[in-house]
Specification:
453 residues; mainly alpha; four-stranded mixed sheet
Length: 453
């Protein structure tokens, strides 16, 4: 219900609740308008990098081809990704013995996950990748022949073409099959490799080598221990008891758990979530961890099997408190996002009127520019990250800004003051200095600022 309300409310809004969604929309619209999906990163716009494979974009293009507006098409495909993911979780849990109320309770745990519910509304792509991973694991787990295992390998590979980091849990799944199902492992691995090779060849044939620079070379982020701590506080602490119950199963039932593919999925996702120690990382880094926890702990939590030698009333109370608290926390966070976006939506026409039809405006938020019918000339977080790593020369763009080659900059902060938080990570020092020195700085509707040259 929360997912339906959240997704439904977003349909009436012109902007999505986060920075990444705006970038993805801009990538898609630029592609539909005749631009390259993976443009070469030079010294002049478009200064954007697509760090993701094209599979979900192809799905969105198919829906948009039916006459659905781009933003609505992206949201619709994303919502279908949630359905596919929940279906994969339900199928695997049922195959593992969860039925009736136990199955309902297991799937219901998804409602306590911010990564699951938040990702169900905006223009995002990660739910399809996670859905493929869960289904691929399930198919390999339940395979009784080489054909079933091969199908699982194909699905695991397809998940990687939705989000390339799904290769990590895919490798975990294949490793489990080689360890415990060696007769089916070869067919799963061959199918995975052949599907991956065919997909890679298709991408190269369609776009050349540029996608591999975007998806591989340009994805190396900068370390941020503070961001990891923030993400753990947001997405691990609210699930601390459920995660602890999953971990404790290793000690209480080691003989069974060590051969359980769901536990392998969970352990791999737990380790991989540490890759969130990068500037700009967020909730998608914990999506697999939550899904693996649901699959593993749900049937045990709501069924008769125990996770510990004794499920005391205190432990049962803590579990209930954790689940209810997480549900309320997720619903509150989504409500706050909707309220914030509603305020922006009300003032958006006035902001767009201030920008007019000027296509030389630099902006931090690609989604706001697209809502005003304008292209986003730069995606500043990725360009700043690459400049910091010495992988892109920012000086020509910085010089163009300071010399007034762009008419204005639309910013979510007053450029005369030093920005904090993520805004400071999205611009180089020279770019921020150019904004500060602009001849005219004015407050704009929606709480944003315009620097004009």
């Amino acid at each position: 219900m929360v997912a339906l309300v959240w997704s439904g409310l977003l349909l009436s809004l012109s902007v999505d609740p986060d920075y990444t969604a705006g970038e993805l929309l801009d990538h898609f619209q630029a592609w539909r308008e005749g631009g390259a999906l993976y443009p070469a990163l030079g010294i002049a716009p478009p200064l954007r990098v697509l760090n993701y494979p094209p599979l979900v974009f192809l799905l969105i293009r198919g829906v948009a081809g039916l006459g659905v507006p781009p933003l609505a098409a992206g949201r619709l495909v994303d919502a279908l990704g949630l359905v596919a993911m929940a279906g994969a979780v339900a199928w695997w849990a049922r195959a593992r013995g969860a039925h009736g109320a136990v199955l309902a309770g297991t799937v219901g745990l998804l409602g306590a996950s911010f990564p699951v519910l938040y990702g169900a509304g905006p223009f995002h792509i990660e739910l399809w990748g996670a859905a493929g991973t869960v289904l691929g694991f399930a198919l390999i787990d339940r395979a009784s022949s080489w054909r079933g295992a091969a199908f699982g390998g194909v699905v695991l590979a397809l998940a990687c073409f939705a989000k390339q980091t799904q290769a990590v849990p895919a490798i975990v799944a294949l490793a489990w099959s080689w360890w415990y199902r060696p007769r089916e492992a070869a067919s799963a691995t061959v199918a995975f490799a052949l599907t991956g090779a065919a997909g890679a060849a298709a991408i190269t044939a369609a776009w050349g080598l540029e996608p591999w620079r975007h998806m591989v070379t340009y994805t190396v982020g900068t370390f941020s221990g503070a961001n990891l701590a923030e993400q753990i506080g947001s997405h691990v602490v609210p699930w601390a008891i459920l995660l602890a119950l999953t971990a404790s199963a290793w000690w209480t039932d080691r003989a069974l758990v060590k051969s359980d593919p769901a536990w392998w999925y969970w352990a791999g996702a737990l380790v991989w979530s540490l890759s969130a120690a990068r500037a700009g990382s967020g909730y998608p880094y914990f999506l697999d961890l939550h899904l693996a926890t649901v699959v593993f702990v749900g049937p045990r939590l709501f069924g008769r099997a125990t996770l510990a030698p004794a499920r005391t009333p205190l432990l049962n109370g803590l579990i209930a408190l954790q689940i209810v608290g997480a549900n309320l926390g997720v619903a509150t966070a989504l409500g706050v996002n909707v309220a914030r976006l509603a305020r922006t939506e009300a003032e958006l026409p006035a902001l767009c009127a201030r920008l007019g039809t000027d296509r030389t405006v630099v902006a931090e938020e690609a989604g706001v520019m697209r809502a005003c019918g304008l292209p986003a000339l730069v995606h500043p977080f990725i360009t700043t990250s690459l400049a910091t790593q010495g992988m892109w020369d920012s000086k020509p763009f910085e010089r163009a800004l300071s010399e007034g080659e762009y008419s204005a900059a639309l910013l979510p902060f007053d450029p005369r003051a030093a920005p904090g938080g993520v805004h400071a990570e999205r611009w180089t020092a020279a770019e921020l200095d150019a904004f500060r020195r602009a001849p005219l700085v004015e407050a704009a509707p929606t709480g944003r600022w315009i620097a004009r040259w």
